[in-house]
Each structure stands twice: as C-alpha cells, then as structure tokens.
Amino acid sequence: MKRVVLIIISLVLLILDNTLMPFLAIRGVYPSLLTIFALSYSIINGYLEGIFIGVLSGMLQDIYFFNGFGLNSLCNMIICLIGAKIGENIFKEKALIPFISTFALSILKDVMIFAILFIMKKKINYFNIPFVAIYNMVISIFIYKRVYKLSQKSYMKSDWNF
C-alpha cells in the first residue's frame, strides 16, 4: 500500500509542478514540489525508501526534461541518499535541519545537472540555481511536517507480505 500511495502522490505533485507552479514563479523561478517531497520523504524514512522515491521522482521529472533523459533519476537518487544519511543523525520531529538540507541538496542537484549538461555541451541557465534552492527551502517549511505525519500513518509503515 505504501508504494501505491507514494506513486499517486508523486504523480499528483508532478502534475502540480508542471501546471500550477509556473504561475507562482518569481522572475521565472519556481520550486519543484516533487523534489521537495522526495527529499523530505527520504530524510524521514531512510535509504531504501530514499532510493525508491529518488528514482521514481527522477523518472517522472525526466518525462519533461528533454536535454538528458535519466539525468534527473540519477541526481534525485544521489540527493535522496544523502538526505537519508542526514536523516539518520537528526530528530525527525524537528524541521530546521531538513529545511537547510533541502536548500543544500537542491543546490547540489542543480549543480550536478549543470555539470553533466556542460560536459555534454548543452546550455542551461545556471544563474537561477540559488534562487530555486531558496524557493524550495521556503516551500519545504510547509511540506516537511505533512510528509512526517504521512510517514507516521499505519498504512505507510507496513510492508506487503506475500
């Protein structure tokens, strides 16, 4: 049940990222709800869940990323694994470290994408990287607590047994 819920939430957030978020842009910069959700979920739930949500969110983001298919999957998986490592050493109820982590990991993701696309000789606007990270951090203030509450639900804690 947990995986189905994660897939549905990810699909909804992808739709919101591509339909609603551009209307909330400030000077052409808008946050990625899917990335924020993936980071928050991996910080709370650890490595295996971080790998799953990182690859899932990356694959969904790659649908709309024409310059390098698979690049978001790789970068999201890496930042979600780092987020899971950060989550090992913090009190998950407190939200300060996850906010700061969202900022730093958003910058890391965008820098990795920029570096790989630079090597591939593709052009990308790198001036927006810090602004997207700040916007992601601000939005994560509202998302992290909800993801934490979702992770505490009984249907999100139990695994399928066959």
Helix-strand sequence = HHHHHHH
Rg over alpha carbons: 15 Å
Helical percentage: over 70%
- Beta strand %: under 5%
Structural class by helix and strand composition:
mainly alpha
How many strand segments?
0
- Average pLDDT, rounded to a whole number, is 88
Low-confidence stretches: none
Number of domains: 1
Largest sheet: none
Number of continuous helical runs? 7
Task: Describe the structure concisely for a colleague.
The chain has 162 residues and is mainly α.
SSE inventory with pairings:
Elements: H1 2-19, H2 33-45, H3 47-62, H4 71-88, H5 96-119, H6 129-151, H7 154-157
Structure report:
The protein is mainly alpha-helical and 162 residues long. It has one domain (2-19, 31-157). The chain is built from 7 helices and no strands. Helix 2 crosses helix 5 (96-119). The radius of gyration is 15 Å and the shape is globular. The model has no long low-confidence stretch (mean pLDDT 88).
Identify the notable features of this structure and list them briefly:
162 residues; mainly alpha; globular; single chain
